[in-house]
Specification:
Distance between the termini: 28 Å
Shape: globular
Largest sheet: 4 strands, antiparallel
Strand content: 35-45%
Number of strands: 6
């Protein structure tokens, strides 16, 4: 799998910013079939950093309705990547 296909987009929220400052961890929305090993290799290759650990979770899409019509947002996968000591990604530093 191509590393740029594994990492869909970075997640930038207040909660993730607090986790980044406390634990030196970053978060990405990743491909649904990506494994921990795929995610680790993609982050190390794209950003040239060393990864300490990868935690993933499947997020279920919310049920939404508009009037009498109901629908469901897509399910997606979230990955928290903890970087080794001294490593950082400039993408997050400029935000």
């Amino acid at each position: 799998m191509n590393p740029h296909d594994v990492l869909i987009r970075p997640l930038l929220t207040e909660k993730i910013t607090a986790i980044r400052e406390m634990k030196n961890a970053i978060a990405f929305s990743v491909h649904r079939q990506a494994t921990r090993i795929d995610i680790r290799r993609a982050v190390e290759k794209v950003f040239s950093v060393k990864v300490a650990s990868v935690n993933v979770m499947n997020v279920r899409g919310k049920k939404k309705r508009q009037g009498r019509f109901t629908g469901k947002r897509s399910d997606w996968r979230k990955a928290f990547i903890t970087l080794k000591e001294g490593e950082k990604i400039e993408l997050y530093e400029s935000a």
